[in-house]
Amino acid sequence: MLEHLLPPLNDHNLPWMDTIHPIVVHFVISMALISVFFDFIGVIAGKRALFEVSWWNLLFATTAIFVAIMFGQVEAGLANPYGASRDILNIHSTIGWSLAGILSVLTAWRYVLRAKDPLSLPLAFLGADSLLAALVVAQVYLGDQLIWVYGLHTVKVVEAMRAGLV
Amino acid sequence: MQFFNVVLQSEAPLNQIAAGLGANDLPYSLPIHPNLVHLTIGLFVIAIAFDFAGALYPLEKRIFRFLALPVTRAGFHDVGWYNLLACSVISFFTVAAGFYEMLTAVPLPGVISTFGLEGFVSMLWHGVGGVLLLALIVLMTIWRGYQRFLWRKDLGRQVQWIYLFSGVLMMGLMGIHGTVGAQLAAEFGVHITADQLLAAGANLREALP
Predict the structure, then answer these.
(1) pLDDT per residue over B22-72, tens digit each?
(2) A-B interface: how many C-beta pairs under 8 angstroms?
(3) How close does chain A come to B3, measured CA to CA in Å?
(4) Is residue B195 part of a domain?
């Protein structure tokens, strides 16, 4: 199916120049983490104007994660994982979809909180923030292993794969 | 010449710490620089994007009203300022980690990148370019601060058009710069365990089960 929709695969085993998923996740990782960071600074330092900055970053992270998942699914489908990277990719996909749900729920909750009073934030939200940050870090750790340990979609590994070496 | 080559080989500075490095040429399993890069790029791009949203506010406010999404122009510019400030602070660590990891990098031999560059030349461009980009990010943050707190403090649009234009230019530079960085990984196998093992002739089925 894919081969009829997309251009032929290159030496990264991709229909485009290089992996796009790691670029899109810039905006999920940095916007989610900075949103949590500004929430904590806002509460601890009493700098409540930062809640607005957090909100926009959170909304953006939520939008970006769906784009990240779309590219992630296509590139995962073309990754040919081997050895333990098969399990890592499965967990990475599961957490990825879960994060999309969690980010959406958090954003909806935040929308309501902000509509009621943009200058206050219940402590419960900081708890949810902490969970979000922990999940994002765990997800980055798994994604890092796929590229930096197993080298999925790197020229050298694709070459070895096509030669039947992995 | 042969004599000098041998001397240079054994005295290559990396050999002094080689015993402490793993198959990925690092003393730890995952490189730090690429993770900090997420923050540098994400924060910079979104800072500029939200200053655009603030600058074009008169055009888009009807859309937000239609979406029942309460917005303030100052809120958009707050994102533009605080994200850029965070980007500036974090990027010093991005560059520092990058330099450490570049010093221990071993690009795969005989590879020419999509840009037509060899490994070492790519590293030189990426290293010097990284410092230049850091300088430009810091300069833009100072410029942004002057606009926010002095020059345009009482104006609705907190940024000059030339500032937004410079931001777009910077994104272009970051795009090219980041692509060289991605090539160092995906094409030159820098700090990638599997690539380095394959280059050393290992069988991945045993070395990386």
Answers:
(1) 899 999 999 999 999 999 999 999 999 999 999 999 888 889 888 888 899
(2) 132
(3) 33
(4) no
- Tell whether B199 lies on the interface with A, counting CB pairs under 8 A: yes
Q: Where residue B7 falls among pLDDT bands split at 50, 70, 90?
A: very low
Please name the residues between 123 and 152 in chain B that touch chain A, using a CB distance below 8 Å.
none
| A22 inside domain | yes
How many domains, in total, are found in chain A? Answer: 1
Q: What distance in Å separates the CA atoms of residue A54 and residue A113, rounded to the nearest whole number?
A: 13
- Is the residue at A13 inside a domain? no
Provide the domain limits for residue A127: 18-162
Is B37 an 8 Å CB contact of chain A? yes
Mutate to test the interface with A, among B43, B82, B111 (most CBs of A within 10 A): B82
Cα-Cα-Cα-Cα torsion A94, A100, A105, A111, nearest 10 degrees, comes to: 170
pTM: 0.92
> What is the number of domains present in chain B?
1
CA-CA-CA-CA dihedral for B178, A95, B87, B165, to nearest 10: 60
* Partner-chain contact B195 A57, CB within 8 Å: no
In a domain, A12, yes or no: no
Domain membership flag for residue B147: yes
Whether A8 is covered by a domain: the verdict is: no
Compute chain B's Rg from CA coordinates: 22
Q: Do A166 and B43 touch (CB under 8 A)?
A: no
Let me know if residue B134 belongs to a domain.
yes
C-alpha span between A122 and A79 (Å, rounded)? 42
